[in-house]
Structure to design on (280 residues):
């Protein structure tokens, strides 16, 4: 899970926000309060923790590869998944996307690369699993270790896609229409695991302007809500109750009767993978 909101003080105080926090805020401000202001949370189940550990191990191996190091899984890092299974996953990924393992020196490749953009009183922080920079274009790549989602449109509108592309456009010389982002879905390497799959999203000037407008909208609302929170007021709840059915805070929000699921925790696919840097 993501780290709690960080405060950074220089001449003034800035609130650090990641894509996951923005996604929670736009989904339900009250949930944002519970997670990041009240610092309430739930430990993952053993199965979820195993999947998260596997995902972190995969990210580490990909970082080793980009640095030109020999791929060496950490001993006992994934007790229920063998080193051979991890190697099968890496090899399947290599066969599906050989260009990602072709380290040509003329192309700059940055692994686990962090960028920060100041917008209003906020520091928007992103961490790219892999950033490929060429003369006339740049590509963001992100590794996911759960099944490819069926609804590609939802992922396009997710704040990870939007914020990652927005920050890169704002912190580089590349125009928005020369940027893209690709998600690669790679699962644990048993023999029945499907081959790695990808989803690619191009960017545009129109999308960039729309993201900027939406960002300013949410950041302005957040500033108002934080001021009210300091006065003892709660952040607003969403009107639609469908998301409450699988939310761990349904009882706290007095919406327990609306829940259709008896499992209070998010599914593995909903849990953000922990960055090697701890947030992002």
């Amino acid at each position: 899970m993501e780290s709690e909101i960080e405060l950074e003080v220089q001449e003034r105080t800035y609130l650090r926000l990641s894509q996951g926090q923005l996604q929670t805020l736009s989904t339900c401000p009250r949930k944002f309060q519970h997670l990041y202001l009240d610092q309430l949370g739930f430990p993952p189940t053993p199965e979820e923790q195993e999947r998260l550990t596997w995902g972190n191990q995969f990210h580490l191996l990909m970082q080793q590869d980009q640095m030109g190091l020999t791929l060496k899984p950490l001993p006992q890092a994934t007790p229920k998944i063998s080193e051979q299974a991890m190697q099968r996953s890496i090899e399947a990924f290599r066969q599906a996307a050989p260009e990602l393992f072709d380290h040509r020196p003329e192309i700059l490749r940055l692994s686990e690369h962090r960028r920060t953009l100041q917008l209003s009183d906020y520091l928007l922080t992103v961490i790219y699993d892999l950033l490929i920079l060429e003369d006339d274009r740049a590509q963001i790549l992100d590794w996911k270790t759960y099944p490819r989602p069926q609804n590609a449109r939802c992922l396009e509108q997710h704040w990870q896609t939007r914020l990652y592309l927005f920050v890169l456009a704002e912190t580089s010389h590349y125009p928005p229409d020369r940027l893209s982002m690709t998600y690669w879905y790679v699962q644990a390497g048993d023999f029945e695991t499907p081959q790695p799959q990808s989803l690619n999203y191009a960017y545009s000037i129109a999308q960039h302007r729309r993201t900027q407008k939406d960002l300013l909208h949410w950041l302005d609302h957040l500033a108002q809500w934080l001021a009210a929170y300091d006065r003892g007021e709660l952040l607003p709840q969403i009107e639609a109750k469908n998301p409450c059915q699988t939310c761990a805070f349904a009882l706290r929000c007095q919406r327990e009767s609306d829940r259709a699921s008896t499992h209070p925790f998010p599914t593995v696919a909903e849990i953000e993978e922990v960055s090697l840097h701890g947030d992002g």
